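Continuing the batch. This is chain 6 of the set; chains 1 through 5 are on the previous pages. Same settings as before, nothing changed between runs. Recording input and output for traceability.
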Amino acid sequence: MCHMKIFTDGTELRKLRKELGLSQSKLSDLTGLVQARISGYELGKNSLSENEETLVRNTIDSLDIHSLRKLKIKRYKKHVRNGNTLADRLRRNYSVTGRNAEYLSLLNDLELNFSKSLSTEAPKALSFFAGCGGLCYGISAAGFKIAGASEIHEGFRKIYSLNFPNTIQLTNDVRQFSEEDCRAVLEKEKNIDLMIGGPPCQGFSLTGKRDPKDARNSLFSDYLRIAEIIKPKIILMENVKLLTSMKDPGGSLVTKRILSEFSRIGYNADFFCVNAKSYGVPQHRERIIFIAIHQNIQKKPSIPQPQCGEQADLFCVIKPFFTFGDAVSDLDFIESGEKSKKDKLHEAVSHPEHVIEWLVDVPEGSSAHENIDPKLRPPSGYNTTYKRQVWNAPGATVATTFAMISGCRNVHPIATRSITTREALRLQSFPDSFRFTGKMGDIRTSIGNAVPPLMAYAFGRHILKNYIL
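Output for chain 6:
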């Protein structure tokens, strides 16, 4: 194995890739990322998202000498889409699970709470790096008025505005959010109770060898700069679990430095490693949450107790985790290239026939790389790619590449295809009423990057009860 050879910019990725004898096109095939994205990153023309960088790192780390040798053997497959493989078999289906109605009821309650009119006295929150609004949706449903939101990506911003038409759009680039902008917010709202957001993990200028051209370097510093002026009572900052292992140039853990920075501006802070499935989300999604409490409140940071878990016995007060099937089993059964007549977001990508052949007999929880017949194994990748999820277990982490069947655990448990946009939304706990607009690539990326609304709701209620009311 390559043992996590870390790159911090495109130049280092290109150097590492060449050391391994790995072409851009092959790295594109392995990760499912468009080659132009990788090329642009290496040339400094564009950035990769957090999920994309993690995917590239994990892919490179999974390669051993044997795998690298196999990659040099070209096995071109013409992309034929005739549906013969599935047509020759008895059509599969699934039944609605016993807890599907319970899960849909949770989403319905979340939607109703989000739709409630809040009084002018409602506690107020500001959101930065808002994305499409998953975190804001849950926080709003918990009883906070989102007084303003900032998001630099135009496509994500349009989706956000569609669902939060009454929320003021703040300066989109936090680096340009001035002291005057902060004063204007305070003049209008008097005070801010909660500040939420998740600066990209690459944006922690405390870490690694930095590229001065990388626009993400100052994002965390700007987030703190804004907080220091606005002085919210509570700050909630969400990020990927990878942050817990990152170190600064001096060898200190980044998490330790972040806590120190919060302390410097007057906050008692701590971080917590959480899993979304513990809060009713039917998905295994590990994240790190920082909670910072203004020192005037004189309370310790804390998070809500898990609501779901492994069911130990009949008297267990915690409910079992919701599963993949619980989230989607009421949706139409569709195969590769098909689409629902009732839901335009429930449409399956059309996959090449040779990929269908690799996967059609793969059981739940297994990968096509494990097929007994070598001819039915993909020529490249590793055993988390071309892998089926499990119907009666929480879904795998929804990434921005969830529609790519070659991605990490993106294959439907029963149908032979990648998961649909509606299925990804259900796994992320977005109510079906949440609306989307724009390019499908932007829609998928915004979904994969979002904080699950149900988890955000649990944290919002906890903060409201313990620190605001």
